[in-house]
Amino acid sequence: MTYAPWWGQFELQPGMMSNWEIGPLRLCMMREEKQWRLGWTTQGDPLSEARNLQQGLPAADMPEDLKQVRFGAGTSDNHFEIRLALGDRPFVAKPEMPLRILPGESVTLFVTTPVVVGIRLHDMKFPDMEIPVIRASDTWFGRDNTEGELCYASRTWAYMDIEQFAFWPHRAITAVIIRNRASTSLPLERIKLPIPNLSLYVDGDGRLRTSGLLLKRDDENDRAHARLLEGGVGDGDWTHVAGPRLKLKNRWLEAFSEIF
């Protein structure tokens, strides 16, 4: 089944409002004569599959449980845009159970991470504000307490079969290809995904996807490289949704031991 995007450009005449229910996110946009009013909450089920959009409703009082903000706008421009982006920190995920990759073997893991919703009014280049669909938990990833990086913890496992994931409209799937060319097994207990360096796409089925990652290890260099695979990993045409928050000088990332 193909799903229409729930993001993009929209129009609201004064006195009208639109509502979204996307996963745990409930968002309401209202157009008034001299202002916009935005309300939202992300207190729903983090793994909800909700995907509902109601457009052009008569304006009504926003529910009291929504956080609210107003934007002064006295012009006749009644357009706004919902933009999607990936998170602003790396995410750390774990396999469903500890995994050892045998010498000479390759595996592909799939991980999902939540997106961020940006609200853009008029012709502003950047969103006026961003709303993380999920407030992810903090976690530390590094050799010790002094050497490492503050990351987000993924709420879902890293699976070897993409079909094990539900069809979440608020989470993007990252494919990670791991090639162990060394003469010893590669233990994998956690993996850090460089989410701010990845691009966001939507595939032909309507799933949100990201740039892929290719991780390689061999006997000569245990700190082998990780390479970005733009355009994703999979069959069919993917449509570009958003670029990376942080662009790399090239597609090679940090050392292997800093990702595993």
Oligomeric form = single chain
Class inferred from helices and paired strands: mainly beta
Helix content: under 10%
Mean pLDDT: 86
Q: Explain this structure to me?
A:
There is one protein chain. By secondary structure, the chain is mainly beta. Helices cover 0% and strands 46% of the residues. The protein has no helices and 22 strands. The chain has strands at 8-11, 16-22, 25-31, 35-41, 51-58, 67-72, 79-85, 91-93, 99-101, 106-114, 116-121, 129-132, 137-142, 148-153, 171-180, 186-188, 191-193, 200-202, 208-210, 212-217, 226-229, 239-242. Strands 10, 15, 18, 19, 20, 21 and 22 form a 7-stranded mixed β-sheet that branches. Strand 20 and strand 21 form a beta hairpin. It is elongated.
In short:
The protein is mostly beta strands and 260 residues long.
What's the topology here?
Layout: E1 8-11, E2 16-22, E3 25-31, E4 35-41, E5 51-58, E6 67-72, E7 79-85, E8 91-93, E9 99-101, E10 106-114, E11 116-121, E12 129-132, E13 137-142, E14 148-153, E15 171-180, E16 186-188, E17 191-193, E18 200-202, E19 208-210, E20 212-217, E21 226-229, E22 239-242
Relevant terms:
five-stranded antiparallel β-sheet, 260 residues, 0% helix
